[in-house]
Amino acid sequence: MTASDKLQTQTPMAPTMRAQMVHTVEAVMAADERVALLLADVGAEQFKGALKAYPRRALNVGIMEQTLVSVGAGMALEGYIPVMHSIAPFLVERTFEQIKDDFCYQGLGGNFISIGASYDYSTEGMTHHAPGDVQILCSLPGMRVVVPGTPGELDRLFRAAYADRAPTYYRLSVRRNAEDRAVRFGRAETLRRGPAATVIAVGPLLDAALAATTGLDVTLLYYTTLAPFDGEALRRAHKGGPVVLVEPFYAGTLTAAVVEALAPAAVRVEAIGVPREVLTRYGTPEQHDAALGLTPQGMRARLERLLGAV
Question: What is the pTM of this model?
Answer without folding.
Answer: 0.93
